[in-house]
Description:
- By secondary structure, the protein is α/β, with parallel strands linked by helices.
- It has helices spanning 7-18, 52-55, 58-63, 65-80, 86-96, 111-114, 141-150, 177-189, 208-214, 241-251; strands spanning 22-26, 102-105, 120-122, 125-131, 138-140, 165-168, 192-196, 218-222, 235-237.
Amino acid sequence: METSVAPRTRRLADLVREASSVVALTGAGISVPSGIPDFRTPGTGLWANVDPMEVAHIDAWRADPRRFWQFYGDRFQTLGDKQPNGAHRALGQLERVGLVDAVITQNIDMLHRRAGSRDVVEVHGTIETSSCLRCGGRWPLEQVLERMGEDPDGVPRCDCSRPLKPDVVLFGEMLPEAPMERAARLAAQTDLLLCIGTSLEVYPVAQLPMVTLARGGAVAIVTRGPTPFDDRAAAKLDGDVVAELEALVAAL
């Protein structure tokens, strides 16, 4: 019943309903309910017990691919087994009914696509493939994991024998131009940028809400904890991300 809808949810539903274009921007927080840790939460975050510059930097991959893949191989195996949660499915449903145009994500876990989202802009890359920087060969995740198991050092290798690099943005690498350019265009054109599970502090993605605001659009935020854009958000919801998005779908 309409009377059971929380005022903040109703406000967000009104914003989505009234916008001619809605684009979602998601970060690590949307995947936490799927069992994927975020990056910096003390004790549980991905970088809580390891220095990312030692295991997730492009120089680490070049200098010691064995150590690099010892870390990333476990992560890839874990991510590959995860399933979308209700928040991912809610965005997929909103796209199917024409209420969300696209999803810009900082995540590499493939869960938006698995949940049915079709227009996904992966600005930090994806674990879906790994590539050879010498010959350009590209291999899907399943074969990368197989090649890890076949190599005595646990390093997946191309047919040309060179170590593969995951098609994700490592520390020390620039974000790929094409996805970032598309993300900026979407942010500039949308009436409502719906930011979900992101602290909006990691650049250059964190500049996208400013792009939307500068072009006269609105920003709405669904995430726990503060963000630099809270005081400029047309709506801010800070409950459980699955419950918040499922309630949004119900309100629409």
